[in-house]
Design a protein that fits this description.
By secondary structure, chain A is of the alpha/beta class. Helix content of chain A is about 35%, strand content about 15%. Chain A has a single domain, classed as Thiolase/Chalcone synthase (Peroxisomal Thiolase, Chain A, domain 1, 3-Layer(aba) Sandwich), CATH 3.40.47. Classes of the chains: A alpha/beta, B alpha+beta.
Chain lengths: ~400, ~325
């Protein structure tokens, strides 16, 4: 039985900082800029915020953000774990808080100096003996240290089992970059990109090459979630959370779930998808556009399968038919995704999914977007949400 | 040296940028098997593509090739160099540095790019210019300038076979603190070790002793890896272990190209291996070409010392 919080929380404000490779400011500065931008977008005041949700990986304590912004009392603060798996988990936290009345107006934020500060591509290492450090210890001595290498291990097996080729990975990488080239906020703004450049780029971890990988970025993103009653009085058209779910599946590890009977798949996302569909009463056919977490190109393909847009192993043909393009079946990552806008751990994706429903994406599809999907990072405990217009 | 003197000196050295060190000059000897064999012996490169005519005849190329890294060898001066060499732009530049106190010399790096192969009978033609000179730098060796020569190699048909950039630091030698020099010990980086806690220390200690163990539930006999404090099947916290035969089959693999972490040997292959006992295990595959590694490949592991501090199971083709 799925707890039903359908349409009990509404996104009313969105905000991004400038994205860069060297922000020159603290992560706290980025966090408060992003939150302030979202508050302004909603037409609220900082003192209207009474809840906060962010990532365990975020370095910006809620109380620091609150003091810097001049937010008063907080009656809800909850963090979500597992890297990019937390993106829609924060929305999940905010939705539950608003739906239960634990808070009225919750801001979801994530801010990081992901390029000039700690870079994920630098790999993990273990100085402290936590369960987490011990987990990475099964891989560190062998040199399997980076997100790209973990995803590569899944990708190699998935390509082997399905016969999907690099042509499909390229289509994911290319479609988002075409979107990014048209987005002034994106790293790829105005940039040409073609198959020759994709093929010529350096190998990172077989079969992933440079352009299969996202943009390490400095920046922040935030969204404001409140009740439908409150949302009706605010500046922007409300974007309702139709369904949201998180899931850690059986035998789950962080990025290294190599111990399942078959590891060419993401069962945690299949469960999250099933629960979101059940909660919202919607099906894959009802989704008009999507923001699918794209730290690496192949993970978009697995998610298309997990959310039922096509069958297992069919995502290659699905995308090669142009499905992700602006006039395709499922315009996806219209901001350029994390492959070409910026990597803000998926929260810039929630911002874009909100824009798609509002009808304000820089690459807004011609068709009406009644429902947009947004997802979290995969290979880890993950989740997703379907957003729609507030009735 | 006053600012004006420095400016005058820099004007002189920067005038060398773009100057020809040698015009296109054919090597005295054509590419030949004898020199290839000697070079390969010294380097310890046993690739049959270089030295085994019979093998090479059956290869896609149909003949042996010269090791690409020998490109610069063909045009190098022989014994004649001991009686001095004819002046050229590079020696003039070096003399100019020496006269102004920049007498120290340190070759800092060589970068070669290859475009086309050569085989015995081909003639390598080399041309060289002074490509660039840095601004004045403060280095650990003393203040100085980096200059880089660019050699371009072509074959007898005028086709470009490669380039070589050779960077040299010319510097004013500084007194090195004697104590620091003698106390300096070479620190060779080692692999990042796993932290060891209650739940995994026993496993790594067995590995240090040359064994790979698999945790086993004492109650229901279920094997589990990585080790955990409780059995997921029956919730028993009683466990022992068995020693793995390290026979297995590759389920997936990746070659790690970037970033390269100090302490690891590349090419580096990581693979998920299904062990004969039934548990999956992530480790390195060694002892074969990266391109030979494939899903379904049978492998056999052995615990080896991989660096000064680290014992690890390494899997070889079975």
């Amino acid at each position: 039985m799925v707890a039903n919080v359908k349409d009990k929380a509404v996104i009313v404000g969105i905000g991004n900082t400038k994205f860069s490779k060297d922000s020159g400011v603290s992560e706290l500065s980025l966090a408060v800029q992003a939150v302030k931008a979202a508050i302004d977008d909603a037409g609220l005041k900082p003192s209207d915020i009474d809840g906060m949700a962010t990532f365990t990986m975020d370095t910006n304590d809620e109380i620091e953000v609150a003091r810097a912004l001049g937010v008063g009392e907080l009656t809800f603060y909850g963090r979500s774990h597992y890297g990019g798996g937390a993106a829609t988990s924060c929305l999940h936290q905010a939705t539950m808080a608003v739906a239960t009345g634990m808070a009225e107006t919750v801001v979801v934020y994530r801010a990081l100096n992901g390029r000039s500060g700690h870079r994920f591509s630098g790999g993990v290492s273990g100085d402290i003996t936590t369960a987490d450090a011990i987990h990475w210890g099964w891989y560190m001595p062998y040199g399997l240290l980076t997100p790209a290498s973990w995803v590569a291990m899944f990708t190699q097996r998935w390509m082997h089992n399905t016969g999907v080729t690099k042509d499909a990975l390229f289509e994911v990488a290319h479609s988002t970059r075409v979107y990014g080239a048209n987005n002034p906020a994106a790293f790829f703004y105005g940039r040409e990109f073609d198959r020759a450049e994709y093929d010529a780029a350096r190998m990172i971890a077989d079969p992933l090459q440079l352009f299969d990988c996202c943009q390490e970025s400095d920046g922040g993103s935030a969204v404001i979630v409140t009740t439908p009653e409150r949302a009706r009085d605010l500046k922007q058209p409300g974007v309702s959370v139709r369904g949201v779910a998180q899931c850690a599946a059986e035998n789950q590890e962080q990025m290294t779930s190599f111990y399942r009977e078959e590891f060419a798949g993401i069962p945690e996302m299949e469960t999250a998808a099933k629960n979101v569909y059940e909660m919202s009463g919607l099906r894959a056919d009802d989704i008009d556009a999507a923001v699918i977490y794209d730290a690496f190109s192949p993970i978009v393909l697995w998610q298309l399968e997990a959310w039922g847009f096509c069958g297992f192993g069919e995502s290659g043909d699905f995308v090669k038919d142009g499905a992700l393009r602006t006039d395709g079946r499922l315009p996806t990552n219209t901001h350029g995704g994390q492959l070409s806008e910026a990597y803000i751990h998926g929260v810039n994706g929630i911002v874009e999914a909100t824009r798609l429903v509002r009808g304000t994406s820089v690459n807004q599809p011609a068709k009406t977007v009644n429902h947009a999907l947004v997802t979290s990072g995969v290979g880890i405990p993950t989740g997703g949400a379907i957003l729609g217009r507030m009735d | 040296m006053t600012t004006e003197d420095l400016k005058a000196f820099e004007d002189k050295i920067y005038a060398f940028v773009g100057r020809e060190v040698c015009p296109p000059t054919p090597a005295k000897d054509a590419v030949n098997g004898a020199m290839i064999r000697q070079w390969a012996e010294v380097i310890g490169d046993t690739n049959p593509a270089y030295t085994d005519d019979t093998w090479a005849a059956t290869s896609s190329r149909g003949q042996t090739i010269a090791p690409p890294a020998m490109m610069y060898v063909w045009g190098q001066e022989g014994f004649a160099v001991t009686t001095g060499r004819a002046p050229d732009a590079q020696s003039e530049l070096v003399n100019l540095f020496n006269e102004h106190g920049y007498s120290g010399v340190l070759g800092t790096n060589v970068k070669q790019e290859y475009f086309k192969e050569t085989s015995p009978g081909d003639t390598v033609v080399m041309a060289m210019t002074i490509d660039n000179i840095s601004e004045r730098k403060t280095t650990g060796r003393g203040p100085g300038y980096f200059f880089e020569t660019l050699a371009t190699f072509t074959n007898q048909h005028g086709e470009k076979i490669g380039t070589q950039r050779f960077k040299v630091l010319k510097f004013i030698p500084q007194e090195q603190p004697a104590a620091a020099a003698s106390e300096e010990t070479l620190q060779v980086p080692t692999r990042i070790a796993s932290p060891r806690g209650h739940d995994n220390k026993w496993w790594w200690e067995a590995c240090d002793a040359g064994k790979v163990l698999i945790q086993r539930c004492k109650n229901c006999q279920t094997l589990r890896h990585p080790p955990r404090p409780m059995c997921g099947e029956c919730q028993s916290m009683e466990w022992d272990s068995i020693e793995s035969t390290l026979e297995g089959e590759i389920l997936s693999h990746t070659q790690i190209h970037h970033p390269k972490i100090p302490g690891y040997q590349y090419p580096l292959i990581c693979a998920v291996i299904k062990l004969a006992e039934g548990t999956n295990f992530m480790a390195n595959v060694v002892g074969c070409e990266p391109s030979d590694v494939h899903i379904g490949m049978k492998v056999k592991g052995v615990v080896e010392q991989v660096d000064e501090k680290t014992m690890l199971p390494q899997f070889y083709p079975a």
